[in-house]
Design brief:
This protein has helices at residues 31-38, 77-89, 126-134, 159-165, 185-192, 203-209, 211-219, 249-260, 269-275, 307-310, 326-334, 350-359, 371-379, and strands at residues 2-4, 24-26, 46-49, 57-60, 103-108, 111-117, 142-147, 170-175, 196-199, 223-230, 264-268, 292-296, 316-320, 338-341, 364-367, 385-390, 418-426, 429-436. It has 440 residues and is of the alpha/beta class. The strands form four sheets. A nine-stranded mixed beta sheet has the order 14-13-12-11-15-10-16-18-17, sandwiched between helices. Strands 6-5-7-8-9 form a five-stranded mixed beta sheet, sandwiched between helices.
Length: 440
């Protein structure tokens, strides 16, 4: 079997977006990925890292600390090829939304003859890129793809029809596309065209890889991830409000990658007034599109001189209520920001705001607001996932802020319950990922 490689500093081949870069070296499929990941850190974790770039990291559940899903240990050819497709799909992270991440591998006579991934929204789908790389060898081949092929016309033609035209013999996909406009259409079309279609391995991993997409297309609401840096005693700032910097350099770099992979970054007006953040991802690889900057500001108190209104080329949205002074909203609009009216009361209606963001193509939201905004999202049960970076320091003090403000739960039975999913190393910190109990 052959894998593309070239070291973590190698740039992807941009001559044909979605194609697999060369050169290649022969390795046993799946083994190099897995062994490399086990050695990635001394803490229990399972990650999927692209062979082409160490910057591509997809945290997967899998060890003794995690109970829902096992780490991938490919033993069959189907598992190895599908794991490869999941790996290369990660190259599109942060670039494909509102479309999902998809990877495809074409195999003929035990050899990979084509690979592809969805590189950017509006660009060729993974299956098409893989078919083009395979050329005539696609005939009588087996196509492994992480998501059910589409059979509808959007910005690109249907993949299922092209698969039939190229006379692919068998299609194995990891999971169905839950988009109501797409679900089942591709598989049904292929079967009617006498292409063998099978549900393959790693369905749970494929769903996790596109968790934001799947939630959004089903509910019409973006997937919300709360990110915070904490001390060992659960404080996000000192009693004087100082928080720079609690966590390690590695954790802060990870946060920048999280920003770059998100469609929108949301903070409250308190964060803007105290920190005046720019909210632009600072990464080695500039994202194809910068995330939407969203400020929750019920009374439109944001200063016209704020960085989010004057610096950076990312779009900015200020969410206000109908009670906001028209003079202030007009002044902010003159700065180029969009005003979203969400709610008629004293506070922004967060559900209405998320619905408005979804209508603008936002699938994923990174919530970076302080304890006040975090509490509001928690109270409305709008947080799907928590990512806490815990540093080995103790701040102490009753007045030091915790991650959530407000009254909170009176009884233990009233607590907001999450499921611990992953515990990983992040420099000297611990990275903990937890999902709300109703989120798969």
């Amino acid at each position: 079997m052959e894998f593309p490689t070239g070291g973590i500093a190698r740039e992807l081949d941009t001559s044909r977006p979605g194609a697999s870069p060369g050169p290649t070296v022969k390795v046993r499929m799946g083994e190099d990925v897995w062994v490399r990941n086990v050695r990635a850190g001394e803490f229990s974790r399972c990650v999927l890292i692209s062979l082409e770039s160490g910057r591509m990291e997809f945290v997967l559940p899998g060890d003794k600390l995690i109970h829902e899903m096992k780490a991938p240990e490919p033993k069959t050819d189907d598992e190895r090829y599908m794991l490869r497709a999941l790996e290369i799909a990660e190259r599109g992270r942060g670039r494909t939304s509102p479309n999902p991440l998809v990877g495809a591998v074409i195999v003929k006579d035990g050899e990979i003859v084509g690979e592809g991934y969805h590189a950017y929204a509006g660009g060729p789908h993974a299956e098409i890129s893989a078919l083009e790389e395979a050329g005539p060898k696609a005939r009588d081949s087996v196509l492994y793809v992480t998501l059910e092929p589409c059979n509808h016309y959007g910005k690109t033609p249907p993949c299922a029809r092209r698969i039939v035209e190229e006379r692919v013999r068998r299609v194995i996909y990891a999971t169905e596309d839950t988009n109501p406009d797409v679900k089942g259409g591709g598989a049904e079309f292929l079967r009617k065209a006498r292409v063998e279609v099978l549900r393959g391995p790693y369905s749970q991993i494929a769903k996790r890889q596109n968790e934001s997409y799947f939630k959004s297309v089903v509910t019409g609401i973006p997937f919300v991830t709360l990110k915070m840096g904490l001390s060992l005693d659960g404080k996000v700032a000192t009693w004087a409000g100082k928080s720079k910097w609690i966590t390690s350099d590695e954790s802060r770099r990870e946060v920048q990658r999280m920003r770059a992979a998100s469609d929108a970054v949301v903070v409250g007006i308190g964060t803007v007034l105290s920190d005046d953040p720019l909210l632009i991802p600072r990464t080695d690889d500039a994202p194809a599109k910068k995330p939407l900057r969203v400020i929750v500001d019920s009374n439109c108190r944001i200063p016209p001189s704020s960085k989010v209104l004057n610096q950076g080329d990312a779009p900015t949205v200020v969410a206000v209520t109908e009670l906001s002074p028209p003079k202030r909203t007009r002044e902010i609009e003159k700065r180029g920001a969009e005003i979203i009216y969400a709610g008629v009361g004293e506070k922004v209606d967060l559900k209405a705001l998320l619905g408005a963001l979804a209508s603008r193509g936002v699938r994923s939201v990174l919530l970076e607001g302080g304890p006040t905004l975090a509490s509001s999202f928690l109270k409305e049960r709008l947080i799907d996932k928590i990512v806490f970076f815990t540093a080995p320091i103790v701040l102490g003090g009753r007045k030091a802020l915790g991650p959530f403000e407000g009254e909170g739960a009176k009884e233990i039975e009233d607590a907001y319950r999450f499921r611990i999913d992953t515990v990983a190393a992040s420099g000297n910190d611990l990275k903990l990922i937890a999902y709300y109990e109703n989120v798969g």
